[in-house]
């Protein structure tokens, strides 16, 4: 099985300006993400950006770069342009690795690609991790997911789902009779599906939750969700995240021991 990893890297982050070029452990953030992808079994790794400063830095450490429009609203839109510009064949599996995930285990990148390849009926594949604390469950920045018995997503939400009708109003603690999962924002798509998906109109659920993947479910397509083979380290969204990840890398802590900080 062959697959391509595309890393969207946008300069104009509102919470952390120039995020892809911010330094962690002596390297720009985008280089750490690129190195994670290169350690996977991907046949190609492409950094997709709209900024010449990112292009220059990425080219400097030997990355393949695809220049895309600055007007894209989402990483999926940027991926679709890469597919068109690079003339990636229709049946190619494309993994969207966010440009702010410097501690994504290569095994998990392989996992989403392999899971999609093994399920021709799925339109996309992604991963999740168990929710460990009530604080995590009730945090709207942590996206939760519920699946059916075959591992296909029923719904994604910023709300705590499934909702324990009897326990939550009384204690606010994690129930022992059900496992809750948080979504990890790593996706695999078939290139022809992604090209179609970005042209579909948005839906009310997507807009209400601000979760793009709900558009796929709304239109009746399926997303396979598996528990991540290894625990991803935290991503970088804010200045605080940047210092946190820098400290973890300086300590040389194995990724498997890192605490997740967020999901998208």
Can you offer a commentary on this structure?
With 264 residues, the chain is of the alpha/beta class. It has one domain: Alpha-Beta Complex (Spore Coat Polysaccharide Biosynthesis Protein SpsA, Chain A), CATH 3.90.550. The protein is 31% helix and 21% strand. The protein contains ten helices and eleven strands. The strands form two sheets. Strands 1, 4, 5, 6, 7, 8, 9, 10 and 11 form a nine-stranded mixed beta sheet that branches. The chain has a two-stranded antiparallel ribbon with strand order 2-3. The protein is globular. The protein starts with a strand and ends in a 13-residue tail after the last helix. The model is unreliable at 254-264 (pLDDT under 50).
Give the secondary structure arrangement, pairings included.
Layout: E1 3-9, E2 23-24, E3 27-28, H1 29-38, E4 44-49, H2 52-60, E5 64-67, H3 75-85, E6 93-96, H4 106-117, E7 124-130, H5 134-138, E8 144-147, E9 153-157, H6 168-171, E10 181-190, H7 191-197, H8 204-209, H9 214-218, E11 223-227, H10 239-251
Parallel strand pairs: 1-4, 1-6, 4-5, 7-11
Antiparallel strand pairs: 2-3, 6-10, 7-10, 8-9, 8-10
List keywords for this structure.
single chain; 264 residues; alpha/beta; Spore Coat Polysaccharide Biosynthesis Protein SpsA, Chain A; 9-stranded mixed β-sheet; two-stranded antiparallel ribbon
